[in-house]
């Protein structure tokens, strides 16, 4: 009987010991599982943190690039506007300078009123010499009327020296007169085309002492033609120095 009791107690102790050992192993497994779970959660959080940091950095870089591009664009626009302002100022300065030059040119330019009296004398050339011509007799051998006091062509040209140079007078009158042994003879023919103030004309400055007046001549006798009078200031007096008719 005693042996039986001892055997039973032994098995009870053995069973109790095995249960305790199993509980210890179970607790250790739970603790290890919890540790792995915490480590897994920690890894996930670290990954999320890294991803968030990357996305934030990427967004920041994009914003910085946008801001940088915006700043560069703004700088470029500012530079363009600056150059446009400078260009406008230069143009304005050039226009002012041109206006000053035009004003000075207008102020320096001789008025057409100075040349009209010279042209009036040109128109009156025949009236100037007519009193010196004897129209009572036509000399057939010279095909003209005899001048009373003028003996040579050169003397005739001097009659117009107040408003034209001798070369112009020669070009106008050389074919209108014949020289005889002791006199000069005026050949009767149509007169020279006259300056008509009512016809269009323009005045151009060549230099300080030279001007050109172009007249669009039109009349029944000569039809339509252009007359270009060149005026030169000689000894303080304006004279016709050239005449082109076309």
TrEMBL record:
Q: Which UniProt keywords apply?
A: Signal
Annotated PROSITE patterns: PROKAR_LIPOPROTEIN (PS51257)
Q: Which residues form the signal peptide?
A: 1-18
Q: What is this protein called?
A: Lipoprotein
């Amino acid at each position: 009987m005693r042996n039986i009791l001892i055997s039973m107690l032994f098995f009870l102790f053995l069973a109790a010991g095995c249960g305790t050992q199993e509980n210890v192993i179970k607790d250790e497994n739970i603790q290890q599982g919890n540790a792995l779970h915490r480590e897994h959660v920690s890894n996930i959080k670290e990954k999320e943190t890294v991803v968030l940091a990357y996305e934030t950095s990427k967004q920041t870089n994009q914003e910085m690039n946008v801001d940088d591009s915006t700043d560069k664009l703004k700088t470029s626009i500012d530079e363009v506007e600056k150059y446009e302002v400078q260009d406008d100022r230069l143009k304005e300065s050039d226009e002012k300078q041109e206006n000053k030059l035009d004003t000075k040119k207008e102020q320096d330019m001789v008025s057409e009123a100075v040349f009209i009296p010279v042209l009036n004398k040109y128109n009156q050339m025949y009236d100037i010499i007519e009193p010196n011509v004897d129209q009572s007799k036509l000399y057939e051998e010279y095909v003209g009327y005899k001048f009373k006091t003028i003996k040579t062509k050169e003397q005739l040209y001097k009659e117009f020296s107040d408003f034209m140079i001798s070369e112009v007078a020669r070009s106008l009158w050389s074919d209108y007169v014949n020289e005889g042994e002791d006199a000069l003879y005026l050949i009767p023919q149509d007169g020279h085309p006259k300056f008509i103030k009512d016809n269009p004309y323009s005045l151009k400055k060549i230099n300080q002492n030279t001007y050109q007046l172009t007249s669009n001549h039109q009349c029944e006798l000569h039809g339509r033609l252009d007359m270009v009078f060149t005026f030169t200031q000689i000894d303080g007096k304006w004279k016709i120095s050239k005449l082109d008719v076309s």
